[in-house]
Input
Amino acid sequence: MSTNGPRATVLVIEDDPQIARFLATALDAHGYALHVAANGHDGLREAALRQPDIVIVDLGLPDISGLEVIARLREWYTRSIIVLSARSRETDKVGALDLGADDYLTKPFGIGELLARLRVAERHRAKNENAESEARIEAGDLVIDLAARRVQRAGTDVHLTPIEYRLLAALARHRGKVLTHRQLLTEVWGAAHVESPHYLRIYLRALRHKIEADPAQPKHLLTEVGVGYRFADE
Output
């Protein structure tokens, strides 16, 4: 990452001082401005104060769970959240991702891999901000306002979870085009989850029940068997 332009800010919510110091040194050397909070409550306050570009959060915090931190952040924070945790069970990963985390890195970790995840998060942010500044998509009685992050069906607001919204927005931005399972998993969950197609099946099913008049015969969220999914606005 070049240090000539504005430094991207990263908030690390981590109670291990050795890891915090290691991250501070490594990320500063690669052009990031780092802020550290040693517990969940301080992390939430720092996030509101600093408005960081990326939040990295441990799940095993001394006051409140990292999962609670993610859930409370996602009430307002729309940028990338990366979990950095010693917990490697699938249930921990799925729980964090379901609450709105974008990526999950297991301790011990290499700084090269973490930097790669940060670069992916920055690319997603830039791409999403550019796309969301221009699009209001109307498809029958469905309206997707990407700039306002608002979805309506027949004039009524549709409540979507953060991941449901990101999945719908990804498909809508590329309306008419088939997106492969790998493309969707990378855009919505991050490159670490390209081998988790069951995420797509679960969330597509939930989305269809929320936005399709007949989820069993969808008109907008179409399956391309063996390939991926397509959003149809006709």
Q: What stands out?
A: The radius of gyration is 18 Å. The CA atoms of residues 103 and 192 lie 7 Å apart. The longest helix spans residues 111-132.
